[in-house]
Amino acid sequence: MFPPFAFDPVDRSRYGEYPYSPSSHRDAATPVIVSFEARVGTVFCMTHESAGEPTRIVVVGSGFAGFECARALARRLRGTDARITMIAPHDYMLYTPLLPEVAGGILDARFVTVPLSEALPHVELVKGSVDSVDFGARTVHVTDCEQGVEDVAWDRLVLTPGSVTRLFDIPGLAEHARGLKTPAEALYFRDQLLTQIELAERDTDPSVADARRTVVVVGASYAGTELTAQLRALADEAAARRNLDPAKIRFLLLDAADTVMPEVGEKLGGKVLDVLRSRGIDVRLETTLAELGPEHVTLDDGTVIPTRTVAWVTGVTAGPLIDTLGLPTEKGRLTVRPDLSVDGHPDVFAGGDAAAVPDPKNSGSVTPPTAQHAVREGQALARNVAASLGVGDPKPYSHRDMGLVVDLGPGFAVANPLGIQLSGFLAKVVTRAYHLYAMPNAANRWAVALAYLTDLLFPRPLVSIGLVTDSESRFAAGEGVGAQS
Ligand SMILES: Cc1cc2nc3c(=O)[nH]c(=O)nc-3n(C[C@H](O)[C@H](O)[C@H](O)COP(=O)(O)OP(=O)(O)OC[C@H]3O[C@@H](n4cnc5c(N)ncnc54)[C@H](O)[C@@H]3O)c2cc1C
Fold first, then answer.
1. I need a surface site. Which of 99, 286, 440, 460 has the fewest CB within 10 A?
2. What is the average per-residue pLDDT within 109-136?
3. What residues does 284 pair with on adjacent strands?
4. Is position 111 within any domain?
5. Per residue in 375-428, pLDDT tens?
6. What pLDDT was estimated at residue 483?
């Protein structure tokens, strides 16, 4: 799956001699010095903090990078006394690329949450958030969901706290818009759309009814475009069941840029624009929001759009933990070296959306915040953390972009696997097959496959379960950013 890496020299002065071999590790009482030149070329290891104690590896975050790192570390360090602890506010890994389909009513939220206890049996889970890191004491301060606190010690620290929705200083944005980074936010959009359509049916004021049936999505990158397409399909189903003219349900997709989905290139981007417009979606480019109220938005050209449903999916910034570290960052992402370690902190590593990882394929730039990179950075993190403990060989991170798959609702998708441009039904098959392949857990894969089969055979279920309250769906509750409710 992964392209062979060109072996760039890692700065070996950072690695010392380490008393390690399987037998000596188990018998920590009598450490011996072993050099591995003969067996695997040159591998150097960090001295171990306190002989006899298990080596404590702490992974912060259970997203793509943290999950993959912990899973690969458990494999690489099997049989050693290393103890891997994952700290995350949830007991699952969230497969974010399918959140638009949760919002669109095709997938149940459980199907895109991979249970950590099942998928990472050899990893200790601490359910909580890391508020701060003490590099001197080598501890992280953790607060759990009941505000209980503890300090967790580490010998190696892996920071993969991901990203949150980037909010701008637009009046009313944090209060009246919602993001799409959590299951709660995805469920909010499904419930909100269906509830507003139902309420509009009974509303005696036609202008209020129209506002209820208007959805504004800001951000025409893949996540925002997928969300718009999925909600449009759900709305069409609702209209059909109510003999309502689907054109009565308005969708506006806005973006400050002059193209949709720049990630897939001009040709596929053009096809996407045509399909969105053919489905009655009002795409307005070089347009964004100037202000939001509870029942309207004002565009930057002064146009006022009455609406009660606004999605803000314009991009991400590194998780708030990064700001607390006092370490160098690049556009808010933690600066790391090619081997994903943090400069000046050889026992601290970072990856995923939260880290500014040098991209050897585009020198001078850092890798984009995608799951594709996060997964592979997770594997590179495991490799280099293990190497710092004397297991294996450190390698710099490198990855050739494999392309993107974007599901755009009934019968249509675009994809460019390995640069091959696909659109329409074939791309749809490739897209769904890719997600079934990439879903890191058999039970979830099965559930998603069955849901796809159900989607082929039956119409989308029009149920608003109401699991998520208004305040739970806000940025503050779900992502820890924006105004308090
Ligand atoms: C709707 C949507 C669709 C997407 N589609 C695609 C796609 O098709 N292809 C693609 O390549 N990418 C896609 N992405 C991007 C992809 O989701 C991210 O790049 C990826 O999730 C980054 O992985 P990560 O591990 O760095 O962070 P995340 O997956 O965000 O995980 C971060 C983890 O850290 C935890 N955390 C945060 N702060 C703390 C703390 N203080 N203490 C403890 N834990 C903490 C979080 O709870 C979470 O578990 C999509 C994103 C979204 C939102």
1. 286
2. 97
3. 254
4. no
5. 999 999 999 999 999 999 999 999 888 889 999 999 999 999 988 999 999 999
6. 60
Average pLDDT on 138-155 reads 97
Q: Same structural domain for residues 198 and 328?
A: no
280 CA to middle of ligand 1, Å? 31
Nearest Cα residue to atom 37 of ligand 1 = 161
Percent of the chain with pLDDT over 70: 89
Say whether both 321 and 306 belong to one domain: no
Same domain, 355 and 418: no
Q: Are residues 52 and 159 in the same domain?
A: yes
Separation CA 469–CA 179 (nearest Å) = 15
480 belongs to a structural domain: no
Given a contact cutoff of 8 angstroms between Cβ atoms, the answer to whether 372 and 415 are in contact is: no
Residues with CB under 6 A from ligand 1: 60-66, 87-90, 96-97, 99-100, 129-130, 160-163, 180-181, 222-223, 319, 321, 352-354, 369-372, 374
74 and 184 belong to one structural domain: no
Q: Are residues 416 and 343 in the same domain?
A: no
The pLDDT tens digits of the residues spanning 54-98 come to: 999 999 999 999 999 999 999 999 999 999 999 999 999 999 999
Residues 70 and 138 in one domain: yes
**Structural domain for 152, as ranges:** 13-89+128-165+317-388
Average pLDDT over residues 270-289: 97
Whole-model pTM? 0.90
pLDDT at 41 over 80: no
Q: What is the percent of the chain where pLDDT is above 90?
A: 82
The number of the ligand 1 atom at minimal distance from the alpha carbon of 186 is 1
Averaged pLDDT score across all residues of the chain: 90
Which ligand 1 atom is the nearest neighbour of the CA of 164? 30
Number of the ligand 1 atom closest to the C-alpha atom of 63: 31
Q: Which atom of ligand 1 is nearest to the CA of 373?
A: 11
- Into how many domains does the chain fold? 2
Residue 341 main-chain phi, psi, to 5 deg = -85, 160
Let me know whether 156 and 275 are in one domain: no
Domain holding 263: CATH number?
A: 3.50.50.100
The last residue of one of the domains, among 388, 413, 444, is 388
Residue 109 within any structural domain of the chain: no
